[in-house]
Design goal:
By secondary structure, this protein is α/β, with parallel strands linked by helices. It contains nine helices and nine strands. A hairpin with a 5-residue loop joins strand 4 and strand 5. Bound molecules: ligand BJW.
Length: about 230
């Protein structure tokens, strides 16, 4: 098996032990608020203030949190592995980069980025955002939104991700329920191209049957021990 190229997909579960809310767990975000209201372009058009409040609240919360041992182990893997490691995260938090990961794609956007629907600019963003906030690039007011990917929108850097999946010797999926496409199909894409596939998750995900192997447990435990094993092999 050619393990010179590793692609890792992470989801909310990798950040759960840092205190970031997951979406579909029993007390996850979607048990408290309807995703159609805050995670679709239609929801934003209907009530932009509600959507800004939702992301302002999460941006403030994430700023108080720290990476955990799973984030740190993945950064160590990238640093110490002799081949190439690409980390694709569905998370909008910045805990992977704060742990030291560099070769990283935020396929669902970033909480510390603003998108202007008028000029298309994507700018680094700190603090709250509202309908009154001017775009840092074109200065128009009323067109700024969180730079995140909502249902019905195209995730970022899909071509680069699919190229990496097709070239991967190993695909690792961590802390994701396998509910949301296209990320839920990555295991099939990588497996078809010949990669060995492994799931590291608290419990069997919706795509569990598609993996060659699985280890179930909290990410802060199973990810460091899997990374140790990879670096020793
Ligand atoms: C732990 C743990 C611990 C807990 N340790 N583990 C019908 C069929 C197929 C597709 C569609 C369909 N109808 C519509 C679609 C498409 C739609 C979709 O997938 N819908 C499904 C609901 C069916 N997808 C889209 O619209 C996407 N765009 C798209 O498809 O464009 C067209 C396209 C075509 C072809 C190629 C490419 C594109 C866009 C999806 C955007 C998702 N956006 C969100 C919000 C982002 C901003 C924000 O954060 O607010 O992304 S929704 C939300 O779900 C967020 C997440 O990134 C995403 C995935 O969630 P995740 O990470 O899996 O979290 P959970 O909570 O679901 O799971 C956590 C897991 O961790 C659980 O398993 C726990 O057990 C585990 N866990 N603690 C380890 N300590």
């Amino acid at each position: 098996m050619d393990y010179r190229r590793i692609v890792i997909l992470t989801g909310a579960g990798v950040s759960a032990e840092s205190g970031v809310d997951t979406f579909r767990d029993k007390n996850g975000l979607w048990s408290k608020i309807d995703y159609r209201d805050v995670a679709t372009p239609e929801g934003f058009a209907a009530n932009p203030a509600l959507v800004h409040d939702f992301y302002n609240m999460r941006r403030r919360r994430i700023a108080e949190l720290e990476p955990n041992d799973a984030h740190r182990a993945l950064a160590r893997l990238e640093r110490e592995f002799s081949g190439e490691v690409l980390l694709v995260t569905q998370n909008i938090d910045d805990l992977h980069e704060r742990a030291g990961s560099k070769n990283l794609i935020h396929m669902h956007g970033e909480h510390r980025s603003a998108l202007c629907t008028h000029c298309g600019d994507r700018s680094p963003w700190e603090g709250d955002m509202s309908l009154e906030t001017p775009c840092p690039a074109c200065a128009t007011v009323g067109h700024l939104r969180p730079d995140v990917v909502w249902f019905g929108e195209m995730p970022y850097q899909m071509e680069r991700i699919y190229d990496a999946l097709r070239a991967a010797g190993l695909f690792i999926s961590i802390g994701t329920s396998g509910n949301v496409y296209p990320a839920a199909q990555f295991v099939q894409e990588a497996g078809r191209a010949g990669a060995h596939t492994i799931e590291l998750n608290l419990e069997p995900s919706d795509t569990f049957d598609d993996f060659d192997e699985a280890v179930h447990g909290p990410a802060s435990r199973v990810v460091p021990s899997y990374v140790d094993m990879l670096l020793k092999s």
